[in-house]
From TrEMBL:
The lineage of its organism: Bacteria, Pseudomonadati, Bacteroidota, Chitinophagia, Chitinophagales. Residues 760-787 form a coiled coil. The chain crosses the membrane at residues 647-668. Residues 1-42 form the signal peptide. Residues 703-896 form the Histidine kinase domain. This is Sensor histidine kinase. Gene3D superfamilies: Histidine kinase-like ATPase, C-terminal domain (3.30.565.10), PAS domain (3.30.450.20), Tetratricopeptide repeat domain (1.25.40.10). GO terms for molecular function: kinase activity. InterPro entries: HATPase_C_sf (IPR036890), HATPase_dom (IPR003594), His_kinase_dom (IPR005467), Sig_transdc_His_kin_sub2_dim/P (IPR011495), TPR-like_helical_dom_sf (IPR011990). It comes from the Bacteria. Keywords: Coiled coil, Kinase, Membrane, Signal, Transferase, Transmembrane, Transmembrane helix.
Amino acid sequence: MSTTLVASFTTRLRPRAAVFVQHAKRVVLLLALCCPALYTNAQNSPAQLMKGLPASHVYTLKDTTLIREMLTYGHHCLVKRGELKADLDTAFTLVSRAYDMSLKIGYKFGEVTAGNIMAQHAYESLDMERMLSWFRYVCGEYKVWYLRSAVSVILPANTPQEIDVAMRYAKLMREVAAESNMPDVANEAEYYIGNFHAKKGDQQGLKKAYLNMIHYHRSKNNPRNELEAWGVLASREDGSDTSFPNRLYIAEKVIALSKSTGHSAYLSDAYLNLGYGLYVQGKIDRAEAVLLEAEEVLLHAGIKKRTFVFELLARIYSVKANGSRALHYARASLENVRQYDATPSNINVYTVRLAEVMLHFGKEKEYEELLRDMRTSGAAAKSTDWFFIISYAQILRRSNPAGAIEYLLDRAKHVPFTDLIRKVEYHRELGVNYSWLSDYNNSLQHMKEADKLMAGLDKRYQGTFADVWLNVAKVSWHAGLYDQAKYYLDRADSIPRGLVPITSQVSAEYYRFKIDSAQRNYLAALNHYIRHKNFSDSLFNVEKMRQMEELNVRYETDKKEQLLAQNAREIVWLNSQQALGRQLLEETKINALQQERLQQQNVLNLRNESKQRSDSLRHSEETNRLLNKDAAMQKALLGQARSVRNLMIIAAILLVLLLLATYSRYILKQRNNQQLRQQQALITNKNESLQKLVSEKEWLLKEVHHRVKNNLQVVMSLLNIQSHYLQDDTAISAIRNSQHRVNAISLIHKKLYQSDNPAMVDMQHYIKELTDQLREYADQRQDIRMALNIAPIVLDINKALPIGLILNEAITNAFKYAFPDGRPGEIVIGLMQPKLNEVLLTVTDNGIGMPDAEQRAAGNSLGMSLMKGLSSDMDAEFSITGDNGTRIAVRLQLDDQASSG
């Protein structure tokens, strides 16, 4: 509801109604007083008039005097101060009898006057239905005021019956105003009609009424009132209604009129409606432009609460894989809500959304730190708020998925769902947790329940649709339901690309590759695998290019700021020198003027004295003496004046010399600056050339690693395809082992081209990803747990590659031989640095171990030979023990090119 529009209507409505009532009372009183016999000359009292005439009385025109007396007394009772119920009842009785008598004798004046008073009485009694029955006796424009008053009385209508009655009065008010040529009142009636349509949920009627108001204000060339109408329509319009004018059209109109009128009351909501509408439609680029403009315009307009603008920009940049901007706007939304809407629930919502953006772009450590407090605080919210419950379950899932499931099921028994989207998220979160535990049947059950509930959601939640369908596809693939997985992937593809993060697109292409490989559709599988890698590489390259562009912009900005600061300092020095010169000239002029005034005063004094001496001959000698004395004084003054003049000339010469010296110094400084700029330009060009050569060298090295990695991935894909054509288990096992070895090498090259240092490998991240992939290859053995104890060590490729291959062989052998017959167990991988120049790699399992005979036989296998040979190539000590499990240890001496992180 527009506060300005409502205020303008409500402030005009009741005062005008009150004025009308008083005016109507005066009119009726004047009509009654038109006859001299009325009121003042009345012969009967009200009590006598109330008794009436005998039933046998025959009414004639002579009874008009009695009718007028009854009307006069009735009107008097109606307009009396206080308006007690007894006065209103007396007025009703007198006027109704006067009306009946007027009808019997055909006294038109009495009939009309009585009807008018009865309409007034009905209004005073708040009986709107009875007022309409006497409405025909109301004259001219007073009909409009009566209807406006009636609408004002029943304006807060809430029940359907009250709304229908109010609508009838408002429409009648519009008709009467149009007949009376009162367009302003007719426009006001459209406002009431639109509001009553809104209460009934009739969007078409609402839009029609407000469009009529908009056309009226436009015809009056009143853009401010037109903006008010558009703004109120925007607040009342349902976003699901796509008929004209839809939400986007209304928002564009509000923005245009707000800019032209300078009125910003509706600007914030209009920008949000437009940006969000474009975002929901998948028009990401246009939504980004609108929201960036909104941020600037709202900032200049002084609108500080811009949380939703920041949140939408964070969503858009997450979809576009722009990590720095997504994190910037996610932090800005959290900071904005802390400053201007700091309720605990709002802070929790935007804290979780910032954490989601951090996790989306691989900032797991920051994600954990941000949500650390939520694990121990907010107990009330964890018990009652479903948003907090689901967010807390997502945190708990990372360390204890079974505990997260138990927590969600317990909350569902005690906390009712507040809205449908939270119920969808509840089932989706349960499905994800069950999939982490490899319980695919329960996972699919909850995922499909979430899919069924999504039928009740609108397009605002298309991002949730895509997320649920991708999770159903992933779980279906793990369960071996390839056709079902393909079906849900196709459904996810129906969502506009602009609403699906690029990371989800990477995941979708990967599972399409898996499905086609399992179904032996190898050509399609290879195509999807290539698309998966292209998406993954584009995500990496986009981020790197954006970082380089930001660094270049920052360097250019700093350089320009330094140059401007230097120029500003030079300008300040020159201005100070000029001010000093001007001050010296002013002082010289003041001294010269003072000397000139002193000489003029002295000459005037001499003239006065000469005149006095000439008047007295008696003092001629004295006069001559005084004249001689004055002449000597004048001579001294002239000499002093010449000295002052000489001093002024000397000062002027010194000033000129100072200015020349200043100018000479300025020229010299300009020449030195020019030489320095030339030298700086040469140095900068050389530095840029060297930097360009270094960058090209690093880029070429990364590109080599990138292409080696891609070639190795193609080899792995070809080996995977080849394995589907083999029937011999030994050959298939050999190919799988070859795939694992090639994957270990490929992972090394991947880490090198993704690293800022293309010559060194971060072993902590490398070993974690290698073990995760080996775990995926051995997903049929979920009872085997893997534990990592990896120190932050960085090695060059000559050391990292053999260690990766040794790890691959050791872990693969442990999976194959250490735990036969489904025996559960644990594999511990350690990479420590016991000494400064020494690294110790250990792979230990608690399996069946290796007897001496088997240990000697295993020493001749390809895997054992490969581990020994690789250890020998690195000049490392290799040892293997088989008591109480198997322990493989490789002790490696570091050189200058490897160091701890």
